[in-house]
Every structure is written in C-alpha cells, then in structure tokens.
Amino acid sequence: MSTYKEKKVITIGIVSELTGLSERRIRYYEERKLIFPDRSKGGTRKYSFTDIEKLMNIANHMEDGLQTYEIRKIQEKEEKEVRDQMIRGQLNAHFNMRK
C-alpha cells in the first residue's frame, strides 16, 4: 500500500511550477534514467511527491557539477542501502534478532 507521497498523480506542468525546473529539463532527467514517471492512458506523465523530492536532489547534484551518470550511481547506491536495511529489518523481525 503506497502513501500519498508515492502516488503518481501530479502532471509535469505542476511539477515544473513546484520545482522551478523546466518541463524540458524534467523530461531530460527521465531520458537519462534518473526519474521514472507513470503514464496515463493518454500518455501524460504522472509524478509523485517522492519524485518531486528526487528531482530537487538531482537538480542540486547538477548544480554541484555532477554528471547524470554520477547521479545515477548515487541513486543506485542509496536504493541498495534502503533495500539492505529493509531486508535486515525483515530478517531481524522474522528471527527475533537484535543488534
């Protein structure tokens, strides 16, 4: 069950207004596999609040001079760390393990 932050219901125009990023820049981040919006039946991109946070992090990394492939590596590392934490938590809960 997803939270309101994860529901992909926000259009690219609203995302652009909220973030200050141009629609072209947002689509570029999608092309570079940094963001993954859903699509409506009509093909409209739909974003979540979590996506908006991710876009702001991407923009900050770009301002710091990072390349898109470097940002993707950072995202992959962060996602792996979250997955690893979740797995450890599930194992601890299942086997009643404590640190």
TrEMBL record:
Keyword Transmembrane helix in annotation: no
Domain HTH merR-type, chain residue ranges per copy: 9-77
A UniProt-annotated Pfam family: MerR_1
Domain of life: Bacteria
Gene3D superfamilies noted in UniProt: 1.10.1660.10
SUPFAM superfamilies according to UniProt: Putative DNA-binding domain
Single GO MF annotation: DNA binding
Keywords, ordered alphabetically: DNA-binding, Repressor, Transcription, Transcription regulation
PANTHER family per UniProt: HTH-TYPE TRANSCRIPTIONAL REGULATOR TNRA (PTHR30204:SF65), REDOX-CYCLING DRUG-SENSING TRANSCRIPTIONAL ACTIVATOR SOXR (PTHR30204)
Name of the protein in its database record: DNA-binding transcriptional MerR regulator
Organism encoding this protein: Caldalkalibacillus horti
